[in-house]
Amino acid sequence: MEIKTVGVLGVGVMGHGIVQVAAQNGYDVIAVDVSDEIVQKGLKEIEGNLDRLVTKEKITQADKDATMGRIKPTADISALTKTDYVVEAIFEDMELKRRIFQDLDQLTRPEVVLSSNTSTLSITEIAAVTKRPDKVVGMHFFNPAPVMRLVEVIRGYMASDETVAISKELAEKGFKKGTVVVKKDTPGYIVNRAIVPYIIEAMRMYEEGVASPEDIDKAIKLGVNFPMGPFELMDLMGNDTNLDVFSSLERELGKEFTFQVSYTLKALVKTRKLGRKTGEGWYKYEK
């Protein structure tokens, strides 16, 4: 099946980046969220990203205009009836995702693949509420989606080989990303399963008074040659998102997950110190 129009449901922190990736690569994109205000905010972020690329001479003004012209913003989920492939990118709430996928199952053509950008939740559980579980897959982009080179393609228990192949080809040839296929629908998939214990251990060192966030970040960058340290990474991702991901792994993996979620992280989320997007997290940021 030829994919010409991509639907992205949710244009927040991750969603607007996915919209940009698809539109920059020539796809018509129907960008949907719950209100016009949120949709317009996402479009403003995309336009700002493209303006920076124009300034840096990475793209031309004509490229920017063409990209923006391919995006169809709306607060009406029924607009997704016209899509050839859907990426859901709402926040990490299983019950909400299940309700959304029931709606998508009714709205879209039977042959359309429905994918979720979830970073930890079970694709199998999401797929089970649809009449096409063989056509439901995980498409996990990384933040910021236009910059990060990887997409994890997660095979749910009932996903067909064709669905995985379509999604892998779209990510690689369509979106120009590198892909890995997660053969088993395990919590956290590959990247989060590997990196979360490292981040949680960094928070534990801070809480034990071993070192400051600044020095832990500096040690990791200079000693391991990572581009940013764990606290900088958390502020970029958003501490509310981090808490959702870490708590999901703790809940789903149980005894296999030997690290407890940090009290300080919970306190930061309670006080809305979510990182770069709110101006303060582990660090303070100038507007």
Q: Estimate the mean pLDDT confidence.
A: 93
**Poorly predicted regions:** none
- Which class do the helix and strand fractions yield? alpha/beta
Please count the beta strands (DSSP E, at least 2 residues each): 8
Please trace the helix and strand order, writing H or E for each element: EHEHHEEHEHEEHEHHHHH
The CATH topology of the largest domain corresponds to Rossmann fold
Widest sheet: strand ordering: 3-2-1-4-5-6-7-8
Main sheet properties:
8 strands, mixed
Helix fraction bin? 40-55%
Q: So what's the overall shape?
A: globular
Do you know the CATH architecture of the largest domain?
A: 3-Layer(aba) Sandwich
What count of helical segments does DSSP give? 11
Overall domain count? 2
- How far apart lie the N and C ends? 45 Å
SSE inventory with pairings:
Elements: E1 5-9, H1 15-24, E2 28-32, H2 36-55, H3 61-69, E3 71-74, E4 85-88, H4 94-107, E5 113-116, H5 123-127, E6 136-141, E7 150-155, H6 161-174, E8 178-182, H7 191-207, H8 213-224, H9 230-237, H10 239-253, H11 263-270
Parallel strand pairs: 1-2, 1-4, 2-3, 4-5, 5-6, 7-8
Antiparallel strand pairs: 6-7
